[in-house]
Design brief:
129 residues; alpha+beta; Ribosomal Protein S8, Chain: A, domain 1; Dna Ligase, domain 1; 2 domains; five-stranded antiparallel β-sheet; three-stranded antiparallel β-sheet; 3 helices; 10 strands
Length: 129
C-alpha cells in the first residue's frame, strides 16, 4: 500500500467532512510532508504522538470562515509503480505559482521552489494547491 497516497486520502476525506484534525500512522516522510505543509501555510500545526506504543501524526487543518479549507486539492504524482524524476530546470509550477510541488532530493524533502533555488532535481511526490 502507498503510505503517502493514504495520507492524502485521509486529508481529502477530512476536508470533505470539515474535520479539524487528521490522525494518521507516523513515518518520517509523512512528518517531512507535514513540515512542508506547515511552512507553506496549508495546516495550522502538526505533532507526532504515541498511543499504546504506536506513533501517529496529528495534523490540524486550516479553514477560512470555518467553511472553506486552505487546501483546495492534492494530487499524487509519483506512484510506487511509476516514479517521476525531474531536473531542477523542469520542476513544474503548480496552479501558475499558487500551489506547491513537493520534491524529494538528495538533500531531503523540499518544495519545488527551494529545489530550483538550490539547483537540485529529484522525484516529484505531489502537487498541493
Amino acid at each position: 500500500m502507498d503510505l503517502i497516497s493514504d495520507m492524502f486520502v485521509r486529508i481529502n476525506n477530512a476536508i470533505k467532512a470539515q474535520k479539524e484534525l487528521v490522525d494518521l500512522p507516523h513515518s518520517r516522510i509523512k512528518e517531512g510532508i507535514a513540515q512542508i505543509l506547515l511552512t507553506e501555510g496549508y495546516i495550522s500545526k502538526y505533532e507526532a504522538l504515541t498511543k499504546m506504543n504506536k506513533k501517529y501524526l496529528r495534523m490540524v487543518l486550516k479553514y477560512v470562515d470555518r467553511k472553506k479549507n486552505i487546501i483546495s486539492g492534492i494530487k499524487k504524482i509519483s506512484t510506487p509503480g511509476r516514479k517521476i524524476y525531474v531536473g531542477y530546470k523542469s520542476i513544474p509550477s503548480v496552479q501558475s505559482g499558487f500551489g506547491t510541488a513537493i520534491v524529494t532530493t538528495s538533500k531531503g524533502l523540499m518544495t519545488g521552489e527551494e529545489a530550483k533555488a538550490k539547483k537540485l532535481g529529484g522525484e516529484v511526490l505531489c502537487y498541493i494547491w
